């Protein structure tokens, strides 16, 4: 299993990770805002279909000793919010929600589906992000999910989380070299 995401179709990225279990523990890091903020973003999530999702990103706070955001991300810096809506929630195996977009953004939302499968003492996580615009958005999303999922693995293993921006810059360059952007 490669750590790099793959294009699973037009505008669709897919990532797979093996994580330390059990299943319920990994699930809690998806839906509990205090645990989710350790690897992705804090913020409320009403897991009922139609419920609101509000992800408050603080990427520079995910680890110690990180680099500042690269120039192209300086406008966002260490603060960003993505809003969405729960599409499906089947604890502890499936979480699907819209990602950004909407009338205020002037573009349709994309959507994220996270599936969890037990595999012995581990959990297989499959994340699929659909309806992405080609080019820079897909490149940024690929680098972001890859880095956030690596940090989730660090947190679940009890390791010091890797530096977000330093890792993201390196990983995004790898995806660009693969022709993703």
From TrEMBL:
Ranges where the Activator of Hsp90 ATPase homologue 1/2-like C-terminal domain occurs: 22-156
One matching Pfam family: AHSA1
Family: Belongs to the AHA1 family.
Protein name in the entry: SRPBCC family protein
Organism field: Luteimonas wenzhouensis
Lineage of source species: Bacteria, Pseudomonadati, Pseudomonadota, Gammaproteobacteria, Lysobacterales
